[in-house]
Amino acid sequence: MNNHIHWYPGHIAKAERLLKEKLNLVDVILEVLDARIPKSGAYGDTKALFKDKPRIILLNKCDLSDPNENIKWKKKLEEETGAICLLTTNSNAKDTNLIINKIIEISKPVIDKMTAKGLLPRPIRVMVAGMPNVGKSSTINRLIKRSKTKIGAKAGVTRQQQWVRVHDKIELLDTPGIIPMKQPNQDAALKLACVNSIGENAYNNEFVAQELLKILSKKYEQNLRNYYNLENDDITIENIALKRNWIVKEGKPDIVRCSQFILLNFRDGKIGKFTLDE
Asked: Which of 1, 70, 235, 267 is most enclosed, with most CB atoms within 10 A?
């Protein structure tokens, strides 16, 4: 069984260049993290990447993560980064107004600076950034629904990049900034695979499901036992498959099917609300 996650995208240099080009156009960054892996799913050196731009961190998919851990991570991230941290989901409309209000709040120094230079204040320009599959596009779509009015391509902006007026004081770049990442840390890569932030070709489902069960057993053992009806049995892929009577040749448990099943259960929040990072 292949137990190494081969994730080293060949386009990292190009992705970083494109991201920095976008960053030069914006005033405020909305950095989206998956609340289940707020450490493993973050870019290594955000201070160097974002420099001194005002930033709001969205701990997204918080409806799938441990509520107690959400509070701890929110506090920790705010202390470490100095950024505002908000707990959000892809489905709660109230989050949209909260995000809008915080953008206006932290962008006041930018507006004041324009005014001090004798310039007419323009709408604040915002970009959503983060790793794959953390909810960037969903965040953009929620904000855009406030307004369907498109703003044409502006000087210094490619034709593929459009600004959308989501508030009379805010314009949003309608394409997300994908944070590139070399991930030599296999523990972090494993957790990214667990939440489906890495393409399936990069890892073995059986290995990732097996490691996921180990992680969850340390903090959420009873949840696993209750969901998979494992009273005294070891928490393994094999035992879960046998409980569901998923059998292949010679009476062996169907590991392939069960591994996919476990990963989907976790990603959909069916087993429980879990946070993988300590």
From this structure: 70
